[in-house]
Amino acid sequence: MAVDLSQIVKAYDVRGVVPDQWDESLAELFGAAFAQVTGAAAIVVGHDMRPSSPGLTSAFARGAAALGVDVTEIGLCSTDQLYYASGALNLPGAMFTASHNPAQYNGIKLCRAGAAPVGQDTGLTEIRELVERWSETGAPEPAAVPGTVTRADTLNDYAEHLRSLVDLTSIRPLKVVVDAGNGMGGHTVPTVLDGLPLTVVPMYFELDGTFPNHEANPLDPANLVDLQKRVSEESADLGLAFDGDADRCFVVDQRGEPVSPSAITALVAARELARNGGTGTIIHNLITSWSVPEVVREHGGTPVRTRVGHSFIKAEMATSGAIFGGEHSAHYYFKDFWNADTGMLAALHVLAALGGQDGPLSALVAAYDRYTGSGEINSTVADQADRIAAIKAAYADRPDVTLDELDGLTVTSTDWWFNVRPSNTEPLLRLNAEGRDEPTMAKIRDEALAIIRA
To answer: pLDDT tens for residues 306-362?
Structure first.
């Protein structure tokens, strides 16, 4: 029977409830389709700690091997560890994870050789069409000689590569609390941080895809509460929180206060520019803080503003030869990591910066956190286009305002800006606002919300 994959094949990945929306039989077809679309002789696959991940991964490997493709299984890994394997081995890769989604979900993040992204416009649509067709007609004809499936462990090599990109040899001793959220940070952090002058206080390092303590989504402030409390109790220098597949990293300072991902982007940008002789291009999406392009220019770099989303960031990284890119969602991209995102490398930069001077983290990041942001505010609306048009009409004739439509609508004035973007999957508008101070931000935030929610 033919299946409709429109609900699980997203813009950048595959994601859905197991076994209701997809299962191992479909995973096997995805493996075959990935093999056919990439045309690769060999691929690498890995998975997170979800209960369904090993079975789905094995099925995917079987599907690819049946078409004559050699498969290297690296087993339990973070998403950026899979990107490392794809880059170091120069092979297309598949990571089985649903990131921060609840336990019943699973998914696949796909990349071409060298960790180049696979999305709707770069192969995912063709993969979906093949799986849908084969689900109706039967699996494709197997190759005369099937591929091999072998196991490899890349964790130590991944850790060594990350540590080669940041000099941590002379940092002062630091105490760091790490909340892995029962996700893959519990697998990678001990190896990456081993041997460094750090006292690591682990939280929820036990791999458990049912997430018994809290959701592995640090973007939600509710999931940072345990870490904030522990940092304070331990009198730690900082705290780090990883999401389920450990590709994103959030930072809290010594007071337990969250550090804006824009401030982390600016800090890492300054360090990467220094490492590259004070020159280079830095990518930032259009809802990162004004602080980011300011810091980049101050340190000799060229800031480039892009749409929100990893496929746009990675494409711009490749086109411009950028050395680093950051997003408000705590995704950090590095040229020296095949333009892929790795929160772990960003965390090493923060540790190096903090440990290389004597002050607390709050004082260090103050130079990179110059404005007041609203955070992302979601509003359910009946007609996204109508509300955006209303905002455009309200500001179009104001002489102190500029409008642009790179991604949704951005309205900019001397002392503030805001962006409104439609969700691709829900009837939502997402508002991000920033001002030179709290009253300025609050005024424009409320003004925009009044129009959105009218």
So the answer is: 999 888 899 899 999 999 999 999 999 999 999 999 999 999 999 999 999 999 999
Q: How many CB atoms lie within 10 A of CB 351?
A: 24
Count of alpha carbons within 13 Å of 349, Cβ hemisphere only?
27
Q: Do residues 185 and 364 lie in contact, with contact meaning Cβ atoms separated by under 8 Å?
A: no
Contact 239, 230 (CB under 8 A): yes
Structure tokens belonging to residue 121: 């416009």
DSSP assignment of 380-446 equals E-S-HHHHHHHHHHHHTT-TT-EEE-SSSEEEE-SSEEEEEEE-SSSSEEEEEEEESSHHHHHHHHH
Residue 260 is encoded by which pair of tokens? 């804006």
Q: Which domains does the chain have, with CATH numbers?
A: 14-154 (3.40.120.10), 163-257 (3.40.120.10), 261-366 (3.40.120.10), 372-452 (3.30.310.50)
User: CA 361 to CA 316: how far, in whole Å?
Assistant: 31
3-state SS assignment for residue 297: helix
CA–CA separation, 347 and 239 (whole Å): 10
Structure tokens that stand for 337 in this block: 């990591």
- What pLDDT, on a 0 to 100 scale, did the predictor assign at position 422? 96
- Catalytic residues, by residue number, are 99
For residue 426, how many other CB atoms are within 10 A of its CB? Answer: 11
Helices (H) and strands (E) in the chain, counts: 14, 22
